[in-house]
Design brief:
9 helices, 237 residues, alpha/beta, eight-stranded mixed beta sheet, Rossmann fold
Length: 237
């Protein structure tokens, strides 16, 4: 496969911004961006090298602005898709173990190839729906989700996987007050507590990007997780 190198300057700026040092992180991020741009089977429509850096790498790494992310040691990325934000976070946080949870086999295969191509050995692919990942129950101190589902649904997916004190961080675009109210209601049922929404700017032209953090403050009721599909069909809120 012929790899198209993204702008080294753009990658270097990300490394400096997030204080990732001059070690393997820069070369790994460069390799990841090149792989996504070159693999014809990449499960994303964003494959132009510059756009990959902006829309995938920068958007994923912006979560490092939250201390709860940089301090995490067992991270689950739900609905990982093409490996974002999980793979960039695994590169940035080499002491963390990152589980990339994805229910589509084709996407899992791509994530495996991408992780191998950029030498990420602290990331593992979990071929499962979030509701059926038994090994992940109460095992995570951070769950992340980007472009996965409506906010109340993500809340229900994440809560059973978090240990008490763990944090969910959800990437969203323009704020939707009604959705946020529904998410807060779902959170109250399932043991999470929302925190103030954090506006972020992953790159200069990014508009309306927000991170929604929630902490697990008590045990999730034993009736959760519900069977697959129920969170979407019958949302808690």
């Amino acid at each position: 496969m012929e790899l198209t190198r993204p702008s080294d300057d753009a990658i270097a700026r990300l490394v400096r911004r997030h204080a990732l040092g001059s070690g393997p992180a820069e070369s790994q991020l460069r390799a990841l961006a090149a792989w996504v741009s070159a693999d014809a089977d990449a499960p994303t429509t964003v494959t132009e090298p510059g756009a990959v850096v902006r829309d995938h790498l920068a958007d994923s790494l912006v979560a490092l602005e939250l201390p709860v992310v940089t301090e995490a040691r067992h991270i689950a990325d739900l609905g990982s898709g093409a490996g974002f934000p999980g793979l960039p976070l695994a590169i940035a946080l080499p002491d963390a173990q990152v589980s990339l949870v994805e229910s589509t086999g084709r996407k899992c295969a791509f994530i495996d190839r991408a992780a191998a191509a950029c030498g990420v050995d602290n990331a593992s692919v979990v071929y499962s729906r979030a509701e059926q990942w038994v090994e992940g129950r109460e095992a995570c101190d951070l769950v992340v989700a980007r472009a996965l589902a409506p906010l109340p649904v993500v809340v229900e997916y994440a809560a059973p996987l978090l240990a008490v004190g763990g944090v969910l961080v959800v990437w969203r675009g323009r704020r939707d007050p009604e959705e946020e109210v529904r998410a807060a209601r779902a959170a109250a049922v399932i043991g999470l507590e929302p925190h103030p929404v954090v506006p972020v700017e992953p790159y200069p032209s990014a508009l309306q990007r927000h991170l929604h953090p929630m902490t697990k403050v008590r045990e999730t009721p034993s009736r959760f997780p519900r069977r697959p599909g129920m969170a979407v069909k019958r949302p808690l809120a």
